[in-house]
Amino acid sequence: MLRTLSQHGQICTRMGAYKPRTSPYSFQGHGKACLPYVFELAGKYGIKVIAMEVTHESHIDEVLDALHHTGNPRE
Length: 75
Hints:
Strand 1 (12-16), helix 2 and strand 2 form a beta-alpha-beta unit. The protein is of the alpha+beta class. It has helices at residues 2-7, 35-45, 58-69, and strands at residues 12-16, 48-53. The radius of gyration is 13 Å and the shape is globular.
């Protein structure tokens, strides 16, 4: 997806790894497992992630940790 955005001139995107839910049986997002993948590809294709939605305060540390482990691909 990020490669396609880049190919079409997109320079930024809004993403969310955590999905608010109304039912405990509905999709809850991919969570912290997808963060390194997202940040690595965003850096590779020059896409800025301008917002990362979180639904709990502990997610902030998960986002920061993923950024650190992917070499802080941000300006």
